[in-house]
UniProtKB/TrEMBL annotation:
Cofactor notes: Binds 2 lipoyl cofactors covalently.
Residue ranges constituting the Lipoyl-binding domain according to the UniProt record: 75-151, 201-277
The protein's Enzyme Commission number: 2.3.1.12
Organism for this UniProt entry: Pisum sativum
GO CC annotation terms, alphabetical: mitochondrion; pyruvate dehydrogenase complex
Protein name (database record): Acetyltransferase component of pyruvate dehydrogenase complex
Annotated Pfam families: 2-oxoacid_dh, Biotin_lipoyl, E3_binding
Catalytic activity: N(6)-[(R)-dihydrolipoyl]-L-lysyl-[protein] + acetyl-CoA = N(6)-[(R)-S(8)-acetyldihydrolipoyl]-L-lysyl-[protein] + CoA
Keywords per UniProt: Acyltransferase, Lipoyl, Pyruvate, Transferase, Transit peptide
Length: 626
């Protein structure tokens, strides 16, 4: 994606005028900045949309971002700038400046990937980059969300770092028992990595291997930790929403640490998966850094829970709801150790359930007389629960979905909800096609399938009716005609339905179509399709003629506007007029075709014209050879 700078004359001039008065503007509550509208009139706008500097109070709705009191030290919070009129969020592609670097007016702070291009974010003031709040590879950062903090004096950098540490310590005290339990059950987080103690290195994030990919699974690592890697080496195989693709190395070095091991599911795009280094001697330093950080995490993990347990013992429960009393009696709990969240310190049913789910329960201190009944009731409840769990486990089996099937399910649901489906059906005589197939095999020793000839028939019909070779553009709100006839073929694989594309099908012979379809189908079943072999397409064909399916309606594959469902051929008896003009019964093979079309693109006229062209091509099949 090409890099370009924001160089609008009016904006550049405005920035030069306003940059010298940034501090006075930010300290004046009633200051207003005006921008030029489309009609040439001035309208008020926010300073943050113009420069990216956050002008809101330093307590914000953004999660995971630390803010600092303006009374501590002079600083500026830089927000994600709006670098295009339609931009609502952006990705941090690369930081050009590091924490602690001196910055001057016009210096490029970072590269931001917008909805249009990758643009450079320039500094409007001089100072020092004290803290980067949003690291490289961060995705979908809303416009205005803080991304960095700058200071005027180099000595203030330490104050920012200290404030970040203080804020993080305060926030560590907040998690509840349930939060701690959830965190303990999760694998080691790979979204944030402390790189301060690491030697020169590069963090490899989960790549976006297709335009629609937002997460992927690590299918297999082809390189092991410590292996030398060259440019073009295959590091790992990644299962995307379309296929299993290979992730190539763009630089040489050594694979120091695998952050996301084999089998890791739903890794977000941009999330770190590995760390590489230039020198083999730095491998151990990276491994040791990770091992020490994991030990520290294990030592620190129990602390919040301990504090929360101490806190729960001091709770004074004034009231207990009837439902909560039943649960406390059934499980033999000590009500004084439970955290009451209801009004007037009332202990609710949800409070008891939360404590039960957390697994950290305090039994109720009972007398010797009451010990036997309470333990018996607790054992009875436990045995009843285990029996119900056993019955439940026998009743069903969880079948894990692949990443491809998850995306297919999501897309098909979106298609049925957002695309107005129009269904048109027609029967065609299949005998001329079967006769042509037989002649090609006997006379020319060319073996083709019925589906290969159907692809050629559909491609010729799309060429005759170009209005059918189109799609709906949500951005423009109009129909877009496609220049080429690219037909997607539905192929069933173990991981889900794939749609490899036969490009320029109208220009290819039946034998060429046959050989290319076989090659693409084999790649699809092996999960080796390249992105350009399954992305795009202008029309889809789904053929179930090999099964006992007479007819069916397929779901449109967005952004395409059409899919043709092909059923099996059936022999039927129908009247035929012979050369003498006498009507006689005759046996014919009929095939049902059902067209699912986007009604925004297809009306009755276009749909009728396309089916008429299809029927004409089936009846005079040999003209396709011309």
């Amino acid at each position: 994606m090409a890099l370009s700078r924001l160089r609008h004359p009016l904006i550049s001039h405005s920035l030069r005028i306003l940059s010298s008065s940034t501090r006075s503007i930010s300290r004046t509550p009633n200051s207003r900045i005006y921008s030029v509208g489309g009609n040439g009139n001035l309208r008020p706008t926010s300073w943050s949309r113009l420069t990216g500097v956050c002008d809101r109070p330093l307590k914000s709705k953004w999660i995971g971002v630390k803010f600092f009191s303006s009374s501590d030290f002079p600083h500026e919070v830089l927000g994600m700038p709006a670098l295009s009129p339609t931009m609502t969020q952006g990705n941090i592609a690369k930081w050009r400046k590091k924490e602690g670097d001196k910055i001057a007016v016009g210096d490029i702070l970072c590269e931001i990937e917008t909805d249009k291009a990758t643009l450079e974010f320039e500094s409007l003031e001089e100072g020092f980059l004290a803290k980067i709040l949003v690291p490289d590879g961060s995705k979908d950062v809303p416009v205005g969300q803080p991304i960095a903090i700058t200071v005027e004096e180099e000595s203030d950098i330490q104050n920012v770092s200290a404030s970040v540490g203080d804020e993080s310590k305060v926030e560590e005290k907040k998690p509840t028992n349930q939060d701690v339990a959830d965190e303990e059950s999760k694998p080691e987080s790979t979204s944030t990595i402390d790189t301060s103690d690491l030697p020169p290195h590069e963090i490899l994030g989960m790549p976006a291997l297709s335009p629609t990919m937002n997460q992927g699974n690590i299918a297999k690592w082809n390189k092991k930790e410590g292996d030398k890697i060259e440019v073009g080496d295959i590091l790992c195989e990644i299962e995307t929403d379309k296929a299993t693709l290979e992730f190539e190395s763009l630089e040489e070095g050594y694979l120091a640490k695998i952050v996301a091991p084999e089998g890791t599911k739903e890794v977000a795009v941009g999330q770190p998966i590995a760390i590489t280094v230039e020198d083999a001697g730095d491998i151990e330093a990276v491994k040791n850094s990770f091992s020490s950080s994991s030990v520290n995490q294990k030592e620190k993990a129990p602390q919040p829970s301990t504090k929360s347990e101490v806190k729960t013992h001091k709770n004074n429960t004034a009231r207990i709801s009837p439902a909560a009393k039943l649960l406390i009696t059934e499980y033999g709990l000590d009500a004084s150790t439970l955290n009451a969240t209801g009004p007037l310190s009332t202990l609710l049913k949800s409070d008891v359930l939360s404590a039960i789910k957390s697994g950290k329960l305090s039994p109720k201190p009972a007398s010797s007389k009451a010990k036997a009944p309470s333990s018996q009731s607790h054992q009875a409840a436990a045995s009843h629960e285990s029996k119900s769990d056993l019955k439940q486990s026998e009743a069903y089996e969880d079948f894990p979905n692949s990443q491809i099937r998850k995306v297919i399910a999501k897309r098909l649901l979106e298609s049925k909800i957002n695309t107005p489906h129009l269904y048109l059906s027609s029967d065609v005589i299949l005998d001329p096609l079967l006769s042509l197939r037989k002649d090609l095999k006997e006379q020319y020793d060319v073996k083709v399938s019925v589906n290969d000839i159907i692809i050629k028939v559909v491609a010729a019909a799309l060429k005759n009716v170009p209005e059918a070779n189109a799609y709906w553009s949500d951005e423009k709100g109009e129909v877009i005609l496609c220049d080429s006839v690219d037909i997607s073929i539905a192929v069933a694989t173990e991981k889900g339905l794939m749609t490899p594309i036969l490009k320029n099908a109208d220009h290819k012979t039946i034998s060429a179509i046959s050989s290319e379809v076989k090659e693409l189908a084999a790649k699809a079943r092996a999960g080796k399709l390249k992105p350009q072999e399954f992305q795009g397409g202008t029309f889809s064909i789904s053929n179930l003629g090999m099964y006992p399916v007479d007819k069916f309606c397929a779901i449109i594959n967005p952004p395409q506007a059409c899919i043709l469902a092909v059923g099996r051929g059936n022999k039927v008896v129908e009247p035929v007029i012979d050369a003498d003009g006498i009507e006689k019964p005759s046996v014919a093979t009929k095939l049902n075709l059902t067209l699912s079309a986007d009604h925004r693109v297809f009306d009755g006229k276009v749909g009728g014209a396309f089916l008429s062209a299809l029927k004409s091509n089936f009846s005079d099949i040999k003209r396709l050879l011309l």
